[in-house]
Records
---
Amino acid sequence: MITGNLQQILSELPEHVRLVAVSKFHPEEAIEEAYRAGQRIFGESKVQEMTAKHEHLPKDIQWHFIGHLQTNKVKYIVPYVALIHSIDSRRLLEEVDKQAAKINRTVDCLLQMHIATEETKFGFSFDECREMLATGVWQQLTHTRLCGMMGMASLTDNAEQIEREFCSLHNFFTEVKQQWFAASNAFCELSMGMSHDYYQAIQAGSTLIRVGSNIFGERDYAAH
Ligand SMILES: *Cc1c(COP(=O)(O)O)cnc(C)c1O
């Protein structure tokens, strides 16, 4: 089932869009099946769970961290994480930089933007992000590289609202790229779109979709 689901999604993806297979709460056997089908990018939202999976599974897997990241746990993922999607404060970015400097590694990061109506989601508002960039502090960081932005649309059936939220993020991404990253080829990723809304996200300019349940089935939260 996993292999079929994966191939179905990949067959529809435009060339400039990459798939992050969100394997959180799923066992290592599920990841191994997707790996055998050729998938190499996996997304996780818990530090302990991702670190255990990283230790057990093939070393050419690219682990993307997509959940809320606490500063005291940064050090556990910095040695191996391929991309952190969820930088939601200047303090967190500075902590990633500090831990990465200790082991002389550069860690790729996305700024998480709050575009949904739900209060529960993390991320910068557009104004908070503008303010953070205007401080210039991030330009002094030597062991993190800002590669773009991530966002989650509201959990709603209203397709127009989802479209509006994704488009607003794409517009903001373009604004920030022009103002601060015009000379940076690395600042090119827009991570948006999940199982129920990735078609719309691609329409709105996503370059990384994060798909879990459409590949692996429903998550068994009770088992954790
Ligand atoms: C769990 C999760 C996903 C995947 O959600 P699905 O609906 O299962 O595709 C994507 N992004 C983030 C940030 C998540 O936490």
---
Amino acid sequence: MKTDFNINNLIRENIKSLKPYSSARDEYKDATSKEMIFLDANENPFENGVNRYPDPHQNDVKELLSDIKGISKENILLGNGSDEVLDLIFRAFCEPNVDNIITLPPTYGMYSVLADVNAIENRKVLLNQEFEPDVDAILEKVDANSKLLFLCSPNNPTGNSFSVNAVEQLLNKFNGLVVLDEAYIDFSEQKSWLEKLDKFPNLIITQTLSKAYGLAGIRLGTCYASKEIVQVLKNIKPPYNVNELTQQRAAVRLQKMDEIQNEVAQLISERKRLKKELECCVSYIEKIYPSDGNFLLLKVDDATKRYNQLIEYGVVIRNRTNQPLCENCLRISVGICEENQRLIRALKAIQ
Ligand SMILES: *Cc1c(COP(=O)(O)O)cnc(C)c1O
């Protein structure tokens, strides 16, 4: 439980005082009423399925997510991918050329790109040899202008989930906002931190429909946080940031959770099979790291050479050798069974 936390101390002054854009669809809310005609938004009135502006509050999608995740709608913010959500967080809380953020490489590349875009210093504290956060080193880097701490768990590209203890210590001791990126949580045996959101008013959890939910193409990122934080982010988001087609496709998919769970189960079992197969039979693989994601990180003899050889076999993976602590490491996404077979054949053929 974290007490003595006041979000108002973290919001930028210009954001605190801004008057949010009020869209035509905001002013008259009861859009479901049959008798109404809508001549308020300068839309083309000829129906084609997408001639109207989308719901700026994404009510249908939020209602489904609210049921699935067991969290109230006021605690949910949706964005055009998690990338938009992360950018909104920067813009709400980080004063350009003044504030700083803390990230823990090797990790997801967008945190540092967004820091650069928003003119925010990125203080990097490497993960330790077990790819866990070094709590003391992180707290040493913190100053009064450290607004955000990014934790990615399960982490991309290392694949591990951070220890509950380390995350909890950081939530308790860091007085800025902890942004916990759970893009891969559905592939993990660890529980989401969602159920502890009430205890930590400084916690922002981001998830996405791009990975386990199979909807990378529609761009829908989700964010769960206190009502106060969600309200600030809503105030600054572009009103129609999640388009109509995305909302429709997301709603259809979210009503098929059994299908999603089935695919996730298959990917987890393929991940385990792939790991076994590679451990036993490919000599130049020195190590396969434990993974809670839908990918494996491998250490090989010469990552760039193996990467190029696989390209010759028509297999594209990710070379992570230039990331800190990832020398000669390759990241491989788990595919469907046939794809994994082809990968295994190629990896064996280039021994
Ligand atoms: C893939 C990924 C995302 C997803 O981003 P979207 O913009 O929602 O597609 C977020 N965080 C991490 C760590 C990822 O690997």
---
Amino acid sequence: MKEKLFSGMIPVTRPYFNETEEQILIETIRSGWVAQGPRVKLFEQAIADYVSAPFAIAANSCTSALQISLEVLGVGPGDEVIVPSFTFVASANAVVHRGAKPVFADIDPATYNMNPAGLEALITERTKAIMPVDQVGLPADLDPILKIAKKRNLRVVEDAACALGSEYKGRRIGGISELTCFSFHPRKLITTGEGGIITTDSEELAKAARIIVSHGASVSDLSRHQSAKIVFEEYPVFGYNFRMSDLQAAVGLAQMQKLDEILEKKRFFAERYNQVFSSMEELEPPSEPEGIRGNYQSYLLRILPKAKKSRDEVMNILLEKGIATRRGVMAIHLEPAYRNRFGEIHLPETERAFKETIVLPLYPQMTVAEQDYVIESLKDAITF
Ligand SMILES: *Cc1c(COP(=O)(O)O)cnc(C)c1O
């Protein structure tokens, strides 16, 4: 095996920044408007246009966006929300912070997303909403999920933290479920440092969310400043400060100009991985079902039990070679906070995926040489 070819680690991901972000930040700072203002409006419009949703409400994270979404749907104490366990802990934390109970759905092992087949069995008279998650950017099978929700009179919040730019049956994620939440954390497709957004086609939900995101105030700071007359705000509900700042939105606007390029480059490298790994019986590369197009936010690979090394051993070997990896995705129901409050449950496909999956380096500025080094190192690790 070749010795380490690269100085420093090959990271799992890396933000795709250049002078565009630097320049727009300088302009924003010089404008004097650094809290929520005109750039947040522009960023909201850019996302709404991109996903074909009439409304977008920016927030300081996707976690806040999920919590607000559940709140505007009236989810509260005594309610149950069906959510996958094979997701980042924030999906279920948002439910718990509403005082509601997350009811965990198992996944389809081929897509790692909520399996619609098991969904109806989880519905009780307390069920208020379903939260499908588009795991690592691959859209959940929304048609059957939305159909069940409609039939059983349940609300839907889609956790699309990772899924900006992904498509379900020809439509972009963000314009399909009644509420969709995206993240702009650096691990996602585009980043604002920290940040999130809600998209919706409901004017009523959009209005309610906009009020809660900013202290429950009836009038935004921007519209007060832009008004020719004195405007006093009212506080009809209890809100939070979950606002995105103009500094973050400025970076987001610069990043939106690169989204197509990021999508294209991630797909190029992901398909290169797929090509090599699909011929190896120890590995199961990710796949896209008919009509569903992901964005390869992360490259999630399954290392099957027939490989010579376990997933954890592979991670260690790669680390020694200067290659960063992550375990695939967590299984929330196994975490102490959840076990202690909601008891032990068993989700066979979630637990298997939790043990067997690994996230490999994938970022737009990756080089073919870097990727080849990852591929060769992984091949060596699982066959010797
Ligand atoms: C990253 C992520 C979140 C949290 O997003 P933040 O913007 O960091 O709050 C929620 N759900 C999923 C599925 C995620 O991957």
